[in-house]
Write the structure tokens for this entry.
Amino acid sequence: MDTAHDSTRTQLLQAAFAEIHRHGFQAAGLSEILRDTDLTKGALYHHFPSKHALGLAVIDEVIQGRLAEAIFRPLEEAEDPYPALLALLDQRIHGMDDEAVKWGCPLNNLIQEMSAVDADFRDHLSAILTRWQGVVQAALARAQAQGRVRADLDCEAASLFLVAAWEGCWGIAKNRQSAAVFRQCLRELRDYVRGLA
């Protein structure tokens, strides 16, 4: 692929991500995405044969990419994953503001909107959740092997709870439109992780 091709595709993905994040997939307008990018319908359909394909690419490339950068890779690459997990929670506790909470978690939003109505979306979203849980489970298992968390910890169950609670914090904070609620919820989650030692 050439650079112009990559740039156009990236522009479309980023604009689609922003539109979907603010309005949901079903209400997202292709005309708004094109307006925001100054691109033509031909450019859009050259890269994505349908709105559905564009939505799946946003999940696979943008949302998963953001999570990989912010959460997955830091945990996978950490020599000492237990403090790395605590550090990730601390970063979110101290780095969240009301504007970030306003639109909610892009992953959570799409899970709520699309899981019951589109099997492809459900499968792609589930793949991210499965990866996230797997990354956390592997980090906890490594921490367990290092003697950093309890030997009797069920790492699979704990990782499921951590991912579900994290996303639950997003949901209630979005509903309340409050970063303070998000921070309070994540502080409790951090205390849970501290209790695993």
